[in-house]
Amino acid sequence: MHLQMASSLKSPQSSCNTQSNMASPSANKSKQSDIPTSRILQKRLQIPRPGHAVVAGVMTRGSAVQTSKLFEDKADLYASSRPMYPKELFDFISSLVASKGEAWDCAAGNGQASIGLAKIFSKVESTDISKEQISNSFPIENVNYSVQPGESTKFKDNQFDLVNVAQALHWFDYSKFWNEVKRVLKPKGVFIAYSYVWPNVNDDIDRVLEEKIKAIIEPYWASNNKLVWDGYKAIDFPFPLMDVPKVDIKNNWNLDQFLNYIHTWSGTRRCMDNIGTDFFESAKDEMLRSWGDPKQKKMVKNQLIIIAGSAWS
């Protein structure tokens, strides 16, 4: 996960107030459906406005947090417990690019997306600002990992056929990031970004998650996360958006696997650091009553938000 504050969003004049301006599908020419967001989170979290960004950190509970620490903590748990991306996503990515030489997996974390990209491209450069994430990366023969910020890299001009951002587009300083992407992409190169939103299991489990965990950790999320919950509709993209397929991440998880995933959320970890783990243990107990046998695996779905484009201005 790349870790710098998003600071180049639409201004209010560009239809970005938090009540009604989440740009409609017709405005961004995307076929994406509405994003299921938490009602509680919608009420309080606000998208950071230009001039209100924290370059070296994010704002949670009114204070700046060193963002390079958000994903270094529990990096090993992150590597083992985050959802893996489906084959349908990489089939779509493969269809976008005529040349399959090199791809840049920017803000790669420990390389979940790099695994799929490595099956498409001859070489993948995977970068992240977190040393801990890179140290827990998946070893792949044609993937080179390095610690670099997404806004300023050592890559050559026109090096890549694809720039890929998985679960991280909401962390960049766009005033610098888009220029870097344009510099390293080939003239006909493609940019793609995708993020998953809230997991769904069934009505009972979803209710416990909403009331007993999401409601408690709500103040501990960085305001950047609101961008992905709203489907990145508040971001000004420097290219026309392509039509994208509807893709869900599907995982068959037992209860411990599901809770480990929730534990990787930065909001969960920061909340635990502040108030302890009692709320999480209480939620686990209630969730167990709905889950049944904790070893039983259930289908966990996360909707993917996908943004893609290639015609740069």
SSE inventory with pairings:
Blueprint: H1 25-28, H2 39-44, E1 57-60, E2 63-66, H3 75-81, H4 87-96, E3 102-106, H5 112-117, E4 123-128, H6 131-135, E5 143-147, E6 160-166, H7 174-184, E7 185-200, H8 203-217, H9 225-229, E8 248-253, H10 255-263, H11 266-275, H12 278-291, E9 298-309
Parallel strand pairs: 3-4, 3-6, 4-5, 6-7
Antiparallel strand pairs: 1-2, 7-9, 8-9
Helix pairs in contact: 8-11, 8-12
Characterise the protein shown here.
The protein has 12 helices and 9 strands. With 313 residues, it is α/β, with parallel strands linked by helices. It has a single domain (12-16, 29-309), classed as Rossmann fold, CATH 3.40.50. Strands 5-4-3-6-7-9-8 form a 7-stranded mixed β-sheet. Strands 1-2 form a two-stranded antiparallel ribbon. A hairpin with a 2-residue loop joins strand 1 and strand 2 (63-66).
Main attributes of the structure:
313 residues, alpha/beta, Rossmann fold, seven-stranded mixed β-sheet, two-stranded antiparallel sheet, 12 helices, 9 strands
The number of distinct β-strands equals: 9
Helix content: 25-40%
- Global geometry: elongated
Biggest sheet strand order reads: 5-4-3-6-7-9-8
- Poorly predicted regions are 1-68
Query: Roughly what fraction of the amino acids lie in strands?
Result: 15-25%
User: What is the alpha-carbon Rg in Å?
Assistant: 19 Å
Oligomer: single chain
Number of helices: 12
Q: In CATH terms, what is the fold-level topology?
A: Rossmann fold
Tell me the name of the CATH homologous superfamily.
Vaccinia Virus protein VP39
Largest sheet: 7 strands, mixed
Order of helices and strands: HHEEHHEHEHEEHEHHEHHHE
The CATH architecture designation is 3-Layer(aba) Sandwich
Tell me the number of structural domains.
Answer: 1
Task: Quickly give the structural class.
Answer: alpha/beta
The averaged pLDDT comes out at: 80
Roughly how many Å apart are the termini? 27 Å
